[in-house]
Amino acid sequence: MAETGESLNFIEHIVEEDLKQGYSRSDLRFRFPPEPNGYLHIGHASSICLNFGLGERYNAPVNLRFDDTNPIKEEKSYVEAIKRDVEWLGFSWDTERYASDYFQQLYDWAVLLIKEGKAYVDSQSSEEMAAQKGTPYEPGTESPYRNRSVDENLELFQGMKEGNFEEGSHVLRAKIDMAAQNMLMRDPIMYRVLHKAHHRTDTDWCIYPMYDWTHGESDYIEQVSHSLCTLEFAMHRELYDWFLDQVVDSGKLRPKQREFARRNLSHTVVSKRKLLQLVEQGVVDGWDDPRMPTISGMRRRGYTPEAIRNFADTVGIAKRENLVDVSLLEFHVREHLNKIAPRVMGVLDPLKVVITNYPEGEEEWLETENNPEDESAGTRRIPFSREIYIERADFREEANRKYFRLKLGKEVRLKSAYIIKAESCTKDADGDITEVQCTYDPKSKSGSGTEESKRKVKGTLHWVSIPHAVETEVRLYDRLFTDESPDTHKDKSFMELINPDSLDVVKGYAEPGVANAVVGDRVQFQRLGYFCVDPDSSEEKIIFNRTVGLRDTWAKLENNK
């Protein structure tokens, strides 16, 4: 039982009630059942956290089952990507299963239904069947093949299995009720002919089972206690139960389907079909592009599994769909990275500063903390010299009193270094500033304990020593869509709402320690945001992806609209 006073979601209440009504804890088994026809996205992450979270709460096994019944779209590479993503999120499955493991058992059960007069082979075209389906207000029309003899149905179904018929020539349908109020019960298709190689069974089968026939029976074979689906499957529950009625043994546990609301994320799309379109049309550089809402894309961008799990916990499980602002996900990313990411100084739009009274050719190494949020992270040494880079936006010739960065005649502190004063600047023929000349106070070194070092100045800037700087490529990622709900517009395609500024590639400079960073390392470039080393990096060039800025700039932009 849950601890007293602990808040439960409605799915957990269902499990708790089942335990009160006679289930034992040993009866509990959950599953995460992705179709391997694409990469997992943030919506799947919530489902993963729900199912595996229940497994952790109740110390119950969770299966990872691939619903691989459509060889046209499914690939082994997707299977491997899904396994990587689930493991990266921090979960372990009890057994790895595939719907294709059960093809023979499903076929045998289908034969049993034919023998019992509960299934038949329909030889109509898909258009003819659709026309006979009826409407929510009018009953459907029975197929002219609905009353074929059992022997004829068995012979045709065997021929379908052996590959004797062309695709689309026959289907196997359950014989239920063409007047049922729930249109899914109007003789649903169980099998179709497909002459396609399967990623596991190759060409052993020429017929493939439909999702509704496969899913519940797979749950039953695996003895899954609670089959949790999103709300679009609510109408399928009646059919789920009807199919189970045909095969269940009273001595075995019967799975139950329950539904929860999908959580849609703003400024993105999560349809695999639409994500594949983005990949195939070159809008992004693959399923793991850091702008994609895929788990692999978020991993490459620098998100942490802890942040995604915290987001899923915050959003929770509900019975109604709603649109969750992506800024909530970004908040959890910032919150976690703030605790764990070491600080690094880097400059993305460099402006050269020459400290004229610092001795030429000299350098010194200064001490600075790795993470002010974590004392155990320790300190590091960074080089200081006569010539440094600062951000171009951190200098103005003239500015009002609210500008606390560097301006002519005024002072700022360089992070973990000295107080400097801007004395003059140099411009090119176009009037653009190319260099700032400053002086420094030699007695003002941070942490030295001198009176000068304790002097208060309002601005503190990050900087990089030019002779020691490591050149980097920095990919500044932003939201992929300008619209918060890009795939809900009736008058325009989601492809028309692509953010043209979702990626900006710049050349930056960072302190020398970054040369030792490896793929996947996360850092905070101080005052700029959180960044992650991209897999495209090499010994010759290190590439950083911007994970998220230090603040939610989109909220300000949208509030000013």
TrEMBL record:
Entry EC number(s): 6.1.1.18
Binding site for L-glutamine: 67, 211
Positions of region (Disordered): 124-147
Catalytic reaction(s) noted: tRNA(Gln) + L-glutamine + ATP = L-glutaminyl-tRNA(Gln) + AMP + diphosphate
Ranges of residues in domain Glutamyl/glutaminyl-tRNA synthetase class Ib anti-codon binding: 341-441
GO molecular function, a single term: ligase activity
Name by which UniProt lists this protein: Glutamine--tRNA ligase
tRNA synthetases class I (E and Q) anti-codon binding domain segment(s): 460-534
Subunit and interaction comment: Monomer.
Membership in a protein family: Belongs to the class-I aminoacyl-tRNA synthetase family.
Binding site for ATP: 35-37, 230, 270-272
Organism: Pricia mediterranea
Domain Glutamyl/glutaminyl-tRNA synthetase class Ib catalytic, residue spans: 28-338
NCBIfam families in UniProt: glnS, PRK14703.1
Predominant location category: cytoplasm
Subcellular location: Cytoplasm
Motif residue range(s): 'HIGH' region: 34-44
